Amino acid sequence: MDYRDKPPNSRQLEVLCWIAGKCPEGVMQGHAHKSSAVALQSRQLVTISRRGGVWAARMTEAGRIYLKTGHYPPRRSLATAKVPGTSKKEAAKRAQTGGPAARPPAEQLVAQVVEGGGSLKMPGCGAGTPSISKTGLTL
Fold first, then answer.
1. pTM score, whole prediction
2. Which CATH number applies to 3-69?
3. Where are the domains of the chain?
């Protein structure tokens, strides 16, 4: 289940507004708001840090958009997402080193899906060959 399938509850929205207001002192009592903030972080609406034992929360761009519109920002599609290792600078670096820079397997897979026009057939399975597309895995 994607975090966007369920909107924040009323308590989480209260905490989101509090974080948007730069976490003013004396508004939240106890520590229950921290649990709501963790849920908001899992929805990518805020970030939480605990540096030096000090708890802090900040809005993300998605959180600002959610507060303004009441909706999550649109998802980036695979077709328009930047694939790591494809910039001119990275291509020049690969050319200087004599080959492709090692990419993590997940980045290689995304690049193959993008290069394949949004889908990738998995070899070796004959009829009913699994494929990966922008919409998911088909078995």
1. 0.54
2. 1.10.10
3. 3-69, 88-138
